[in-house]
Each structure stands twice: as C-alpha cells, then as structure tokens.
Amino acid sequence: MSRLFRSLIFVPGNNERFLEKAKSMTADIVCFDLEDSVPENEKNNARNLIKNALKSRSEYKPAVYVRTNSPLSGKIPKDLDSIIQKGIDGIVIPKVNNTKELKKIEKTLLKIEKKRKIKPIQIIPSIESTQGVVNCYEISSVSKRVCAIVFGVFDLLNDMGIEYTKQPEGVKYARSKVSLDAKAAGIASIDGIWQDLKDKEGLVEDCKIGKSLGYSGKSLIHPDQIEITHEIFYPTKPEIDWAEKVCQVYLESTKKGKGATTVEGKMIDEVHYKQAKALLELIKKQ
Fold first, then answer.
1. Among 41-55, 203-217, 253-267, which stretch is predicted with the lowest mean pLDDT?
2. 18 with 11: CB under 8 angstroms?
C-alpha cells in the first residue's frame, strides 16, 4: 500500500462503475466520496456500494480512503458504522472547524474498531472554512491518526464571500498557512482541486504553485490529472535523503526490539517507515 500523498482522487460513492474503475487507478490515494458528489437521496446507496467495494480491497492498487459527510451534517456516525471495516486505510473528514469535532469522531472510531477488531485507521481532515484555517495547526497535531491535511478552496471561498477565479487572491494566505501548519505538525499537506479539466496548462501551473508552497500533493477529480500531478510532485532531494535516514534508523531500531524511535529529534514509527519506503521504491522505478 502506498503511503505517498502526491495525489488524492475523489470517486463518487454512488457510482458502481467508477468504484470498479478505481481499482486500476495510479493515484496514491483513491477516496470514495459520501459527501459533495453524492445527492442526499443517494447517501444510503453510496454507503452500501462503498461497503461492498471495501470487501475487494486487495484488488485496489492505491491506498483507499472514504470521505464522510461533514461534522455539522450529523451524518458521520451513520457513515462510520457503514464503512469502517478491514480494508479501509483511512477517512477524509470535510469541513473540519476545530479539534473538538475530531476528538468526537475519534471516540466513535475507537469504539467501532474495538468492536470489529481492526487496527486504528488514519484521518485526513479537510480545511474548508475560515475557522478551520485559523485552527489548522491544532487540527493537524490533535492526534497520531492525522496523517495529512487537505486544503478545500471552494467552500472557503464561499465562507469568505469571494467569487471563484482560477487563482483567487483572497485565499492566498489561507493556502500558504494550511501547508505551513501541516509541516509544523510533521504531516503531509494536499492542495485543493483544479476544476477545469480542459485547462492542462492551468493544472501544471497550479501544481507548481502548490509545490512551491510546500504541499505534498494535490486533490484530483479526474484520472487524466494524475500523470501531470505525479510528474510535478516528484520527491525532492531533501525528501529522498530524509526517507533514507528514516528507513535506516527504523530498521536498526526494530532489530533491537524497539518500534518507535527518533530521527534528528523527530519521533518516527511504522507509519513513517512505510511512507519512506514507498518513496524510495518510487525512486527505484524511475
């Protein structure tokens, strides 16, 4: 399973054909969606289709996440009860405003995981509001489950009362802050989507801007965007050097019977090792 965050592609959870097609996608993460792409009258159908798709987890090449509905929707308990099972790698939680919301969700997760005897899954909060931007560092560092942060530009624009343009001036600060806060918390950051599928030059430029801001990768809405995104978000030399150190130190630690250890004063464990290993394996393939 890949632990890279170059690309996270959303797949409508109520479309059985798209769920099947996702098995062969080359994105680092496929994210089955229960939120924006699923109409209200299709939520239950989407939950059932995703539940069945997860039974075939071994047939999916990328990591598999599910985007739940938002904390304010009141639908998350039902979402989690339907989808949390062996095969799911993590969840994306949209429109996270504060740590209280995440702590409540984590308690629900823990109960389901214990009951179903599955390992703790990862969480990727999505920052899509002014409150979420202000609280981003606290959200990023609230739990060991939080492995990355997504920047959701469209709902943030709506929250700020700003009309959408391809490079909106009004959210430049927020876009920079989200990646900065994620980096300070020691996790990955995933940039917002590029909506215009026909404008590939625009996608290239937007990816370059995201990378220059420190983002690890990008949210996607179509498979045609994967190749461009992967090309631009290819690991940098400092990232490769860090991955080599993590693998070396972690393997030495496990030989001594220890799990978690430190590299240059930063705590690392099995999750960091798997992510570093995936990055180095990617390099070997090039």
1. 253-267
2. yes
Residues of each domain in the chain carrying CATH 3.20.20.60? 7-234
How long a stretch of residues is the chain?
A: 286
Q: Sort strands 261-263 and 266-268 into parallel, antiparallel or unpaired.
A: antiparallel
Residue of 152, 157, 228 whose CA lies nearest to 197: 228
Question: Residue 99 in 3-state DSSP?
Answer: helix
197-231 exposure pattern, b = at least 16 Cβ within 10 A, e = fewer: eeeeeebeebbeebbebebbbbbbbebebbebbbe
Render pLDDT for 146-165 as a digit per residue (tens, 0 to 9). Answer: 999 999 999 999 999 998 88
Phi, psi of 22 (to 5 degrees): -65, -20
* Contact present, 29 and 63 (Cβ < 8 Å): yes
CATH of domain 7-234: 3.20.20.60
Strand 90-93 relative to strand 63-67, pairing:
parallel
